[in-house]
Write a structure and sequence with these properties.
The structure holds two protein chains of two kinds. Chain A folds into three domains: 103 residues, PAS domain (Beta-Lactamase, 2-Layer Sandwich); 76 residues; 158 residues, 2-Layer Sandwich (Heat Shock Protein 90), CATH 3.30.565. Chain A contains ten helices and twelve strands. In chain A, the strands form three sheets. Chain A has a five-stranded antiparallel beta sheet with strand order 2-1-5-4-3. Chain A has a five-stranded mixed beta sheet with strand order 7-9-10-12-11, with helices on one face. In chain A, strands 6-8 form a two-stranded antiparallel sheet. In chain A, α7 crosses α10. The N terminus of chain A is likely disordered. Classes of the chains: A alpha+beta, B alpha/beta. The interface between A and B is medium-sized, with 27 and 25 residues.
Chain lengths: 361, 134
């Protein structure tokens, strides 16, 4: 149970209060003493570091910038029933960052047993929550990866079976078909491991002056045949004014191949149109930035999923995707200090727009 | 075919071309007539046209067409009796099924990917003999 501040002064001839205050200063949580009107009367060092020396102001002003007591305020409950209450609150610190805090409030009881105020201990749990989210994402990633690998294994086993069957029955067409299955699935597992490696290793991008159009062409060349095979036209339109930019070629290549393979999948999965196309465009925009646009008229992303596109491991491809490709796209764009956005309409198509600053050395 | 009986027909519905090729080759080798479809919509059309004796259906296809096809198959007065084997990459498929198909009869069997060829053949033989009564 907490004690009344006046009491403490009287029974503290040996400086125990000062020692106690020093101890409270060391607590890595924001501790404040508030009166019954929610006015802050005393704070510890962590509180001052996060919110400034706001003694005399109201708690709801300091934490939330409000003019009145928050709905569901834990301190108000403590004042009502004299018990400890807990809640999680999103607050803004003086440096402008928004943090999530676990708040605990306890009553301060006066000599006559009446509640005279309360003590609030607020602990920043943003990091803990972020770690929790990472663990959840990791779990989802493992599940979606296992799923995807099962498909590859099925494709490889199927391919082997078809090859053997082709050899046994001397059927050249069947043999070729089986071999194509084996090849396709080896390509898939290769791409998966490359993406996984890209996402898991701490790699510093290696920037160099390079013609972005040549990187775009190289990636488009890799996908042109594949696209044609699926009846998808791949157009490339390059802005010649883009002579060179400071880019990480490996990252940019991964970015391009992921954008293209997503666009191709979107077309292959789409059953609503006869003809499909993918368009790749580079533009030097008036502000001197490199704009890369990859558009397709494939299946599009359902409206309710659009907001999640860059969440880790997002996929709209059911079991045919891991969502890893989007994570690669996002990471590469971040490493270049750029931005990526997506516009999509289900059954109409998708446009990914990447804007990268052209940094010259 | 023995004694003029017709070969039983198996319909394979899967969006993965590799699975369709794999299962088509496997079942054709063992005397079945095989039809394939690449999504749920097409699966229903082919099922109505060819009246298969057994359906292998991938449940997780884009746009939920696998789930839609399963519901419509099981509710169809004629096709509702055709045994369906669900092919799935989900390990937790039973709980998934419990949520999604509460009101619909359960499938005759589940096969988790990657399927073993012997397991598929045994299932097919159990659910429909090669020479089905037409």
């Amino acid at each position: 149970m907490a004690h009344d501040a006046d009491d403490r002064v009287r029974v503290d001839p040996e400086g125990l209060v000062a020692q106690g205050e020093r101890l409270v200063d060391l607590v890595p949580s924001a501790v404040s003493i508030q009166d019954l009107r929610f006015r802050i009367r005393k704070v510890n060092r962590t509180f001052r570091a996060l919110f400034g020396d706001r003694v005399g102001e109201y708690c709801y002003e300091v934490y939330k910038g409000r003019k009145e007591v928050c709905l569901d305020c834990p301190m108000a409950k403590t004042f009502r029933d004299g018990k400890v209450h807990e809640s999680e609150e999103i607050v803004r610190t003086t440096d402008g960052s928004v943090v999530q805090m676990a708040v605990r409030t306890a009553p301060l009881i006066g000599k006559n047993g009446a509640i005279r105020g309360g003590m609030e201990v607020a602990t920043d749990i943003s990091r803990t929550l972020a770690s929790q989210q990472e663990l959840v994402a990791l779990g989802q990633a493992m599940a979606s990866m296992a799923h995807y690998i099962k498909n590859i294994v099925t494709g490889l086993e199927g391919g082997m079976f078809v090859v053997e069957e082709g050899m046994e029955s001397n059927d050249e067409d069947l043999l070729q078909e089986g071999w194509r299955m084996v090849r396709r699935n080896i390509e898939r597992v290769t791409k998966l491991s490359r993406d996984q490696l890209y996402c898991s290793r701490e790699r510093d991008p290696e920037f160099q002056e390079i013609d972005p159009n040549s990187l775009v062409c190289e990636a488009a060349r890799l996908y042109r045949d594949k696209a044609l095979k699926h009846g998808v036209d791949l157009h490339v339109e390059l802005d010649d004014r883009l002579e060179s930019a400071r880019l990480d070629p490996e990252g940019f290549h991964n970015l391009m191949t992921n954008l293209l393979s997503n666009a191709l999948d979107a077309c292959v999965f789409d059953t609503t149109k006869e003809r499909h196309w993918i368009s790749v465009k580079t533009v030097l925009d008036p502000t001197g930035e490199l704009v890369l646009e990859v558009a397709d008229n494939g299946q599009g992303i359902p409206k309710n999923m659009c907001g999640e596109v860059f969440a880790e491991m997002f996929t709209s491809k059911g079991r045919s995707g891991t969502g890893l490709g989007l994570l690669v796209i996002y990471r590469v764009v971040c490493a270049h200090g750029g931005q990526v956005s997506v516009l999509s309409d289900e059954d109409v198509g998708t446009v990914f727009t990447v804007i990268l600053p052209i940094l010259k050395s | 075919m023995i004694g003029g009986a017709m070969a039983a027909t198996i319909l394979v519905v899967d969006d993965e071309q590799d699975i369709r090729t794999y299962l088509r080759t496997l079942f054709a080798k063992h005397g079945y007539t095989v039809e394939t479809a690449s999504d749920g919509e097409e699966g229903l059309t082919v099922a109505q046209k060819t009246r298969p004796d057994l359906i292998f259906l991938d449940i997780m296809m884009p746009k939920r067409t696998g789930i839609m096809a399963y519901r419509r198959l099981k509710k169809d007065p004629d096709l509702g009796k055709v045994p369906v084997v669900i092919l799935t990459g989900l390990s937790q498929y039973k709980s998934f099924f419990a949520q999604d198909f509460e009101q619909v009869p359960h499938p005759e069997a589940f096969v988790e990917k990657p399927p073993e060829p012997d397991e598929l053949l045994e299932l097919a033989r159990k659910l429909v003999p090669v020479e089905a009564e037409k």
